[in-house]
Amino acid sequence: MIAGTSPGRVPRRRGPAQPRGRRLRNREAAITECYGDAMTAVPEWMRPPRPEGWFADDLDHLPEAPRHTELIDGALVFMMSPRRIWHAILIDELRGALRAQAPAGIEVVREITIRLDDKNRPEPDVLVTEQPRDLRRTFFTPDQVLLVIEVVSPESAHRDRTVKLRKYAESGIANYWIVEEEDDGAPVVHTYELDGPTRSYVPTGIHRGKLRIPVPFAIELDLDGLLPGRTS
């Protein structure tokens, strides 16, 4: 009897280790056998470049990826439905209003990713930073971001309210806003501030009509005025 085995059990013999390339080919063959043409129809660029999945830096080397591609927990996330004009106009107007009030040295940027860690690189709708303008930049890091804003759409609601809420807090971003749409089309802003010891967000207000808040700088917004031509 071989040490470490039970009486009557025959120890399993392991064959020689397969080269990595052969293991990957066997894995792809097994996936194809299981899922058939559904897997073979996937474009080559959408296949993870390694068994561990995608890394944050991979987003800089995917020219075929659609705009606004994000990385969440090592998986590519695409915008699956077209954005409504409400969403696009609100982002533009919100950014413009914040830029008009921002002190010198503060930049308000839209739709640039934040590299939270090796497996997470989300793209917020708007962010506020003290970093000097660099036209070659493709991402920020959490320590460079003062405020993140997500304008909720039906497709992004779960990520914005739960997944990103947790991940932005865990990465140490001090302020987070979630902008929702009321039944009449008016924007309502939920504001959060980071509790440092717990690395979680604390709600600081639900703002309708007007928003006045002192961080990351003194901000006063006429929320109804951001979409003056809205209809219910």
UniProtKB/TrEMBL annotation:
Entries under InterPro entries matching the protein: Nuclease_put_TT1808, Restrct_endonuc-II-like, Uma2
Compositional bias (Basic residues): 10-23
Superkingdom to which the source organism belongs: Bacteria
Segments forming domain Putative restriction endonuclease: 57-215
Location of region: Disordered: 1-23
Transmembrane segments: none
Protein name as annotated: Putative restriction endonuclease domain-containing protein
